[in-house]
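Please check this record.
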Amino acid sequence: MFRIISGKWKSKRISAPKNFDVRPTTDFAKEALFSIIENRFRFDYASISVLDLFAGIGSITLEFASRDCADVTSVELHQKHAAFISTKATELEMGRQINVQRADVFDYLKKNRNRKTYELIVADPPFDTPENKYEELISLVLNNNYLKENGIFILEHQSRTKLQHPNIFDTRKYGNVSFSFFKANEPGSMEISTEEIPNDLPDVPESNL
């Protein structure tokens, strides 16, 4: 079960069938994440495009849609999970906002290079993802024109996994879950300059549990 934190469907609780093997982002971590998105980046939800990778049962997808984001692409491999997102989107009158793609995330990113750019990309790979697959995911997102020039890529991972990349400008820890924030590559470059990397994300309470 997860809860939609804010927006049109604020406090709406979503329950998945008991036989679903899913691990939605906790309400605590999700609330902290969206606080950062709103207070630091100040995106106008109604005018941005969002790509939700490893969407699971739609905790992040439905949260963006509830906050009036009109263009959310949700990529999920598991057939029943993808169908669940589509069903809930329809039930909550979000069907026109959410585009569910049933696909392997790595294959999807390889096949759709240079087709569409996004202001926000969020990814929540399985917690047992090996380091080399994290590196591949980061490379596919950053090096294939998925992010707009001022776009942000947010990668959720175990706190014990310490990611290293020149585009990371902050990592926030909430218990055993961390979010690493990546800036888009500079135009014409495969690597980001370390100059002018923002370091003033708002102070959001972190959990040490």
